[in-house]
Amino acid sequence: MTGMDHVARIQAEWAAERPDVDVTPQGVIGRLHRLAAHLTCELVAVYREHGLDEGEFDVLAALRRAGEPFERAPGELARHTMVTTGAMTKRIDRLERAGLVTRRRSGDDGRGRVVALTPAGRALIDEAFTAHMRNEHRLLDALPADQAAHLEAILRTWLARFES
């Protein structure tokens, strides 16, 4: 089994032990799963260089993408980052303690809250996002541009089936 990647070795072992089961999907799913783990490690390393974890980066990025005045309600933040409101509260608490966001009552509804980037939070996410994009370019440079574009089209189609 020399010259085979990890997934190919697993497929060969299953083929020997369970020749009655088609393990072809592991070729795609297994490799995507392993690749996602590798990519996550590479992405998180850049967040850490800026003193952030993945969730904190996510919140700051969602606020920055909101445009001036760089604020959103906590529920809206949760939707833009795909986490629960409970997890969002913990993230906001940490970011507020670090002086990167503030919370205030909503002008529209006194019961609601609004989370906003502080100047320090904006400066940090701008710096971290620039480094993040540089890192993503580096990671994607492992593929020729035409293959990267083809892969993006395939993934967009496949992901739409789950998210529609």
Automatic annotation (TrEMBL):
<dbReference type="GO" id="GO:0006950">
    <property type="term" value="P:response to stress"/>
</dbReference>
<dbReference type="InterPro" id="IPR023187">
    <property type="entry name" value="Tscrpt_reg_MarR-type_CS"/>
</dbReference>
<keyword id="KW-0238">DNA-binding</keyword>
<dbReference type="Pfam" id="PF12802">
    <property type="entry name" value="MarR_2"/>
</dbReference>
<dbReference type="InterPro" id="IPR011991">
    <property type="entry name" value="ArsR-like_HTH"/>
</dbReference>
<keyword id="KW-0805">Transcription regulation</keyword>
<keyword id="KW-0804">Transcription</keyword>
<feature type="domain" description="HTH marR-type">
    <location>
        <begin position="25"/>
        <end position="160"/>
    </location>
</feature>
<dbReference type="GO" id="GO:0003677">
    <property type="term" value="F:DNA binding"/>
</dbReference>
<protein>
    <submittedName>
        <fullName>MarR family transcriptional regulator</fullName>
    </submittedName>
</protein>
<dbReference type="InterPro" id="IPR036390">
    <property type="entry name" value="WH_DNA-bd_sf"/>
</dbReference>
<dbReference type="GO" id="GO:0003700">
    <property type="term" value="F:DNA-binding transcription factor activity"/>
</dbReference>
<dbReference type="InterPro" id="IPR000835">
    <property type="entry name" value="HTH_MarR-typ"/>
</dbReference>
<dbReference type="InterPro" id="IPR036388">
    <property type="entry name" value="WH-like_DNA-bd_sf"/>
</dbReference>
<dbReference type="InterPro" id="IPR039422">
    <property type="entry name" value="MarR/SlyA-like"/>
</dbReference>
